[in-house]
Design brief:
It comes from Centaurea solstitialis (yellow star-thistle). By secondary structure, the chain is mainly alpha-helical. It is built from 17 helices and no strands. α6 runs antiparallel to α7 and α13 packs across α14.
């Protein structure tokens, strides 16, 4: 199970009889039953905001594997009300067209999982290029953003067909993730980074304070995590398990996983510290010690922090361990709370981006006036 256990002893059967006292919860309960029966092929009853219900969903996702991904892709295609030949037709229509997006895609193809036995081949590059180029024409506001190449590449490896990979990319960008994460100014991504920084302050205050003292901006690592959806940082099997939960619960899961990575780093470094002191010489004693949020311990330089984070993420081969931390050791977050934090951060982000654009325009005007 991947979430914190509720301390309420009231059974779901008793809750369902409390329609007068809790009508809004009863209504949401009915909706969640219909949702999972209709879209995902299994039934889960209960209040959508109850952590126990989310636990049950996560466990069913784990048992079901990747079968539901194809169902999700087909659902997205049907909801788009486009002909069955949409992807094939658009692939033909955009063939040979050159745009800034296609140029950047061509530049990024050989840098996407280099050395992979299929992706790093002419056939793999061609399939990845088609998915990315076609989507860049489907959504001109997004076009192409670096990071999508890793997401689309992993989808190609998981989905049965290239077309399904395209539709799953559409599901992610249009239904799961927040708006404007991949637009030109990355405003949505900037908002997510500010929200994450606030959550890190709350969940790992000593780590956050220490990183600030080092003048380390967490967006140096978290931007890649959020844009690539961890596909470039975590082992592929761990990433797939993260995506399983992401598709069900939405973009708030990215915050859980990002915070969990810092929690795992703290725990690993604490163990190393204890094993190298007189406090403890036996790993079996560590579990009885209270895990403290230390200051990434011995780091004194930004490079040290980056190395520790990269080494940790690249070796998180056990998805159960990471997801257990993400949902057991992190305070329960609702989509409503995250949305409230996003709205709070949006004005500052837009003001900052506007100021940056004005500086850029001013610089360009100065350059143009100096030209003969």
């Amino acid at each position: 199970m991947y979430g914190t256990q509720s301390k309420r002893d009231l059974s779901f059967e008793i809750q369902s009889q409390m329609t007068i006292l809790r009508p809004s919860i009863h209504a949401r309960r009915a909706n969640i039953v219909v949702k999972f029966q209709d879209l995902y092929g299994f039934t889960v009853e209960g209040n959508v905001d109850d952590v126990n219900i989310l636990n049950e969903v996560r466990e069913k996702v784990r048992q079901q594997g990747k079968v539901w991904w194809s169902l999700e892709a087909n659902k997205a295609k049907k909801k788009s009300t486009v002909p069955d030949s949409y992807y094939r037709d658009l692939t033909v229509a955009v063939e040979g067209k050159v745009t800034p997006a296609t140029k950047q895609i061509d530049h990024d193809l050989p840098r996407t999982f280099p050395g992979h036995p299929w992706l790093d081949t002419p056939d793999g590059h061609a399939a990845l290029r088609r998915v990315l180029v076609v989507y860049s024409f489907r959504d001109s506001d997004v076009g192409y953003c670096q990071g999508l190449n890793y997401v689309a590449a992993l989808l190609l490896l998981v989905m049965k067909t290239e077309e399904e990979a395209f539709w799953m990319l559409a599901v992610l960008l249009e239904n799961v993730l927040v708006n404007n994460c991949y637009t030109t100014n990355l405003s949505g991504c900037h908002v997510e980074q500010r929200v994450f920084k606030g959550l890190l302050d709350k969940e790992c205050p000593r780590v956050s304070t220490h990183l600030e003292a080092l003048e380390f901006d967490v967006s140096l690592v978290a931007t890649e995590w959020f844009l690539c959806l961890f596909s470039k940082s975590l082992p592929s099997e761990t990433t797939m398990r993260v995506w399983d939960v992401l598709f069900y619960e939405g973009a708030k899961v990215l915050f859980n996983v990002a915070l969990a990575i810092f929690k795992v780093i703290i725990c690993c470094l604490l163990i190393l510290l204890l094993l190298n002191t007189s406090v403890v010489r036996d790993l079996s004693q560590v579990s009885s010690l209270q895990m403290k949020e230390l200051e990434l311990l011995t780091t004194h330089h930004i490079g040290d922090v980056l190395n520790i984070i990269h080494n940790t993420t690249h070796h998180l081969f056990d998805p159960d361990e990471l997801l257990t931390v993400a949902f057991d050791k992190i305070s329960f977050m609702t989509t409503t709370n995250i949305t409230r934090q996003r709205k709070k951060q949006e004005p500052a982000v837009m003001a900052e981006l506007g100021q940056r654009l004005r500086r850029l325009n001013s610089t360009n005007m100065d350059v143009n006036t100096r030209l003969p």
